[in-house]
């Protein structure tokens, strides 16, 4: 868990291990760090050099020997604050050019069908749902979506609830008690024999067809009011047949 957090802050696994080893040792030579961490000596020196560049390790010369010491862990809070300040500045700068970018995007919306590949593509789709700001409906399979999107999905749910977007979804019976029913959600269930890795989300004037393969998830978004309304009618038929 802690290595994952360090990686989020820009440290490699070796850098994380060297830093934690130094926290245990206090002050030590590279050889002692190598012995304690189990990392090859050359990799230890490389990690130390990068940690020094990041202000996370310092050294002193004692009896002609170079001794390394870790910075106080509070330094990571400062790094997080620096990243936040940088992101806030970037957000402010990006907001200034947003009107021009949105104008260009609207000019491209004459294209009725778009393809999104991979996890990042799915994130783009769900962010589009948030931007639409409308309640939506769909079916299938919640477990797979949460598995593929992992940490992002909680972030998405938080944004959706904050935006007041309600949804109705149809899952298979195997999802009962397993898939969490999030706030502003109404869920019904159909027999497992009708389940698949395909999913559907209908929002605004768009219909999203999702193939939720872990190897290469894919989404096809059709922007067409008539098609979206047609799928909504199919959904309502399924909703009446599904069970709470």
Explain what the structure shows.
With 244 residues, the protein is of the alpha+beta class. It folds into two domains: 2-74, Arc Repressor Mutant, subunit A, CATH 1.10.10; 110-241, Endonuclease Chain A (Endonuclease, Chain A, 2-Layer Sandwich), CATH 3.30.870.10. 52% of the residues lie in helices and 21% in strands. It contains nine helices and nine strands. The chain has helices spanning 2-8, 13-25, 30-37, 41-53, 74-108, 118-132, 142-149, 151-162, 225-241; strands at residues 57-62, 65-70, 113-117, 136-139, 167-172, 185-190, 198-203, 206-211, 218-223. The two termini are 38 Å apart.
| Spatial extent as radius of gyration | 25 Å
Structural class: alpha+beta
Stated plainly, the CATH topology of the largest domain is called: Endonuclease, Chain A
Shape: elongated
How is the biggest beta sheet arranged? 7 strands, mixed
Distance between the termini: 38 Å
Strand order of the largest sheet: 3-9-8-7-4-5-6
Strand proportion, as a percent range, falls in 15-25%
Number of domains: 2
In helices, the fraction of residues equals 40-55%
Number of strands: 9
Please write the string of helix (H) and strand (E) elements. HHHHEEHEHEHHEEEEEH
Label this structure with key terms.
Arc Repressor Mutant, subunit A, elongated, alpha+beta, seven-stranded mixed β-sheet, single chain, two-stranded antiparallel sheet, Endonuclease, Chain A, 244 residues
């Amino acid at each position: 868990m802690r290595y994952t957090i360090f990686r989020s802050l820009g440290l490699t696994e070796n850098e994380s291990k060297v830093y934690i080893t130094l926290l245990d040792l206090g002050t030590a030579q590279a050889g002692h760090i190598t012995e304690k961490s189990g990392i090859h000596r050359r990799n230890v020196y490389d990690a130390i050099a990068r940690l020094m560049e990041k202000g996370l390790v310092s050294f002193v010369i004692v009896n002609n020997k170079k001794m390394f010491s870790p910075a106080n862990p509070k330094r990571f809070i400062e790094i997080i604050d620096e990243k936040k300040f940088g992101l806030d500045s970037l957000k402010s700068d990006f907001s200034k050019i947003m009107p021009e970018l949105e104008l260009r995007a609207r000019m491209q919306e004459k294209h009725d069908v778009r393809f999104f590949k991979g996890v990042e593509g799915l994130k783009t789709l769900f962010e589009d749902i948030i931007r639409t700001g409308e309640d939506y409906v769909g079916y299938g399979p919640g477990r797979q979506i949460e598995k593929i999107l992992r940490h992002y999905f909680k972030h998405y749910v938080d944004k959706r609830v904050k935006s007041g977007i309600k949804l109705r979804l149809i899952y298979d019976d195997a999802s009962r008690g397993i898939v969490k029913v999030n706030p502003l959600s109404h869920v019904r269930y159909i027999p497992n024999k009708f389940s698949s890795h395909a999913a559907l989300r209908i929002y605004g004037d768009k219909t999203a067809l999702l193939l939720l393969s872990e190897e290469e998830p894919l989404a096809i978004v059709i922007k067409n009011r008539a098609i979206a309304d047609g799928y909504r009618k199919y959904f309502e038929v399924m909703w009446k047949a599904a069970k709470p």
